[in-house]
Amino acid sequence: MEDSEVERDEPLTPAGRLFLQPLMDQVINCAIATVDPLDIEAIKNEIRNSVMLKHPRFSSLMVRDSGGREHWRRTEVNLDRHLVIRHQPLSDDPESDAVNDYMADLSYSSPLSMDKPLWELHFLMAHRTAVFRVHHALGDGISLMSMLLCSCRSIEDPEKLPAIAGVGASSSPRRRWGLLSLLKVFWYTLIYVFEFGLRTLWLKDKKTALSGGAGVELWPRKLATASFSLEDMKTVKRAVADATINDVLFGVITCGFSKYLDIKSPKAMREGHQITGVSMVNLRPNSGLQDLSKLMEAKSRTRWGNKFGMLLLPVYYHGDCSDPLQFVKRAKAMIDKKKLSLEAPCSYKIGDIIMSIFGAKLASILNYRIVCNTTFTLSNLVGPSEKISIVNNPVKYLRVTSSSLSHAVTMHMISYGGTADMQILVAKDVIPEPKVLARCFEDALVEMKEAAVKT
User: Of 160, 213, 155, which is closest to residue 389 (Cα–Cα)?
Assistant: First the structure.
């Protein structure tokens, strides 16, 4: 290796190194379905002129030095090597969700090649869908969605970039911290960080019909979609004092899991049985998507990359669903405590310290143990609130999932144009019918809305 090349190489961030470890190797898969047929040449021209190819992460190889440490090295991008074009329908069965099946296969059997920059674009021509694959080492969902929207335009005004929720918004309003509030912050932080430690050692969820475990990330997957109306979620939110959309979402998940467990193993469940989820929390000063120009500024507080912490979110089985709004109220009470704590920033900082002192291998083992000892993963990304187009082709939906984890169920939700689609990725030997689980979530929101209207 020449000295000039070494000088130009840029080291990976700690989070980027973590996501390249075999135990935590993660690729983000984003499906973009359009109304009209895909125009390959127009999309290629858009990519060539886009900010994406100007970004060093998307035009760099990941290389390792003699000590095994990872670096980014700039290279020429051969666009054709990053495109996969499939002209034939993926399935002859009109009842199958072929795009979800395709993404499910990608999630456990198709890593990205390391001899080119770590992204690909798959064109499913018969389904008018493109699947954008990006390695998690390049950035998190906030960074990547902010970049994607720079190539899109508003349907109502083709000259205008889509409105990005969160841009220009200030961070959370300042609290007036009294002694009692500070004591609560200290106490909740201490409890939740201590639980994180226990999860890396021996504390583990009891086995249910949703449980995964070590090695499950290698099992074949299925993928189903649960669709929610944002207006319905807002109706439920208004029925519970001071609730947020996230409170409603977690109430829906808790109620949906209870419904599913009632179907699959009613005699095995006890009232109040706990299962635990891992949720990702954006730690940037502004919530929502970001102004890409600020993300790419060297001195910006909202830097490009992976900037999120982790929360452990307990779910409790309740067989009585006669008052579905109780699920939202319980979710709100729990999430309020989580918000008051410093669990997410501490998880990020502790992980960063472990990476710096002990290296990526130990950090990946600890993260893997946390996943093995919990039951599900949840992420929620706010997408564009208005309908958008890409190369003058209206977008029908945006859906996101990722590589398999040792969880048997992984959920990624993104909102777009008044609808929120949650991709439910499951190990099919554990959850053979994910559409049943998706329907449990959808039914939970319908029941909550009906209860909210009556209040």
Answer: 155
Cα atoms in the 13 Å half-sphere on the side-chain side of 447: 20
Q: In angstroms, rounded to a whole number, what is the distance separating the alpha carbons of residues 376 and 312?
A: 10
Q: What is the pLDDT of residues 36-73, one digit of tens each?
A: 999 999 999 999 988 888 888 899 999 988 777 889 99
DSSP single-letter state for residue 393? E
With vertex at residue 207, the alpha carbon angle to CA 201 and CA 208, rounded to the nearest 5 degrees, is 145
CA angle, residues 282, 283, 288, in degrees to nearest 5: 45
Same domain, 186 and 149: no
Question: CATH number, domain at 96?
Answer: 3.30.559.10
Residue 196 falls inside a structural domain: yes
Nearest alpha-carbon partner for 449 in 273, 302, 240, 289? 240
Among 57-71, 172-186, 278-292, 299-313, top mean pLDDT goes to 57-71
C-alpha closest to that of 409 among 275, 286, 289, 238: 275
Residue among 20, 311, 8 at smallest CA distance from 138 = 20
* Residue whose structure tokens are 């519970």: 240
Return the biggest CA–CA distance within the chain. Answer: 72
Let me know if 116 is exposed, middle or buried by CB neighbors in 10 A (0-12, 13-18, 19+): middle
- Average pLDDT, stretch 409-429? 95
**Cα distances (angstroms) measured from residue 323 to each of 53, 254, 429, 455:** 52, 13, 33, 11
**Number of domains comprising the chain:** 2
Element housing 280 (H / E): strand 274-282
Enclosing domain of residue 222: 179-383+404-454
Cα-Cα-Cα-Cα dihedral sign, residues 233, 236, 237, 238: positive
3-state secondary structure of 184: helix
Q: Are residues 190 and 251 in the same domain?
A: yes
